[in-house]
Amino acid sequence: MQNAMTGVSRRNQDFLHILQSYVQLTKPRIILLLLITTAGAMWIAAEGQVDPVLLLVTLLSGTFASGSANTINCLYDRDIDDVMERTRDRPLPSGRVSPRDALIFAIALAVASFTLLTVFANLLSACLALSGILVYVVVYTHWLKRHSPQNIVIGGAAGAIPPLVGWAAVTGELSWAAWALFAIICLWTPPHFWALAILIRDDYAKVGVPMMPVVVGNESTSRQIFYYTLSLIPATLLLVYPLHVMGVVYAAIALVLNGIFVQKAWNLMQASSDLQVARSAFKYSIFYMMLLCAGMGIDSLPVTRHLVGAIATQITRLW
After folding, report:
1. Transmembrane stretches, by residue range (predicted)?
2. How many CB atoms lie within 10 A of CB 225?
C-alpha cells in the first residue's frame, strides 16, 4: 500500500525538488516583505549604523520564524488548499511533503529561530519572534481565519511583530517608535490583503472562508480599504512627529507613497468589481511597504542627516 512518504518520493524526483518543496512550504515571497520591515526597524533603532552580524542573524532568525508559522499554516489549511485552485499544487495537498515531515520541519525552524536570537541578540527579541508564530498559528489560522470576517484585521498583528523583533534585537527594549512601526503594519495589512481577497473571492467562497469580500461584498470592502489607507497617513508620520526618529526625507517619501496608495484605493472604491483595479492596488501595496522601509533606511543614514542639516543651515542663512 502506498503511503504518504511513497507519494513524496514519487513526486520529488531528486534532492533539489525536495528542497524546493520545503522552501515552498515557508512561502518565501511573504517572508521577504516581513524581512524588509524587520530591517527597516533595525536601521531606525541603530540610527543608520546596524551591526552587520546582528542584521544577518536577525534576518535569518526572522526567516526561520516566519517559515515555521507559514509551514504550520499550510499544514492546518491543507484541506481547503486542496480545493482552492491557486493552492492545490502546494507541497501538502499535492502529496510532495507529508504532514508529519512538515510539522517536524516547522518545529525545527522555530527552535532554530529562538536559539539564534537568544544567543546572538537577546531574549526579548527571541520571545517576540516566538509570539509571532503563536499569534499567526493560534489567533489567525486556527481561531479567526475560518470564523470571522475580521480575521485579517486582528490576526494581521502577527505580521506586525517582525519590526518589534528587529527593534528589540538592536536596543533590547521596545520604545514608542517600535510600537508606531507595529501600528503602521497593522493598518497596512487589511488594504493589502483585502485587495488580494477581492481577486480570489470565489476561491474563498468555495471553501467557506469568511474573508471580507465574501461576507460583505466588494463595494463595502473597497470602502474599508480606502479608510485604512487614509489612516496610514497620520500613522506613518508619527515617526516624524511627535516621535522624532525620522526626518524630512522620510516624511517626503511617506507623503508621496501615501498619496499614491490613497489614489489606488479611491480608484478601487469607484470600481470595486474591476479585478484589474484590485490587482493594481494589491501590487502597489507591496511596493508601498518596500519603499516606505527603504525610506526609513535612507533617512536614518548619518550622511543623509548631515546633508539635510547642511541644507537647512544654508536656508536659514539666506533668510
Report:
1. 30-46, 52-76, 97-117, 152-170, 176-200, 249-269, 281-298
2. 31
My answer on whether 182 and 156 are in the same domain is no
CA separation for the pair 17, 230 (Å, rounded): 44
pLDDT average, residue stretch 27-40: 95
Q: What digits encode the pLDDT tens for the residues 233-283? A: 999 999 999 999 999 999 999 999 999 999 999 999 999 999 999 999 999
Residues ≥6 apart with Cβ < 8 Å to 279: 195, 199
192 and 170 both lie in a single domain: no
On whether both 105 and 182 belong to a single domain, the answer is no
Label residue 8 by pLDDT band (50, 70, 90). Answer: very low
Do the Cβ atoms of 240 and 292 come closer than 8 Å? no
Domain ranges, residue 60? 14-174
Question: Does residue 49 come out as left (phi exceeding 0), alpha (psi in the -120 to 50 range) or beta?
Answer: beta
pLDDT computed for residue 33 by the predictor: 94
Distance, first Cα to last Cα, the chain: 86
Residues 58, 127 within the same domain: yes
Q: What's residue 13's pLDDT?
A: 62
Mean pLDDT of 54-65: 98
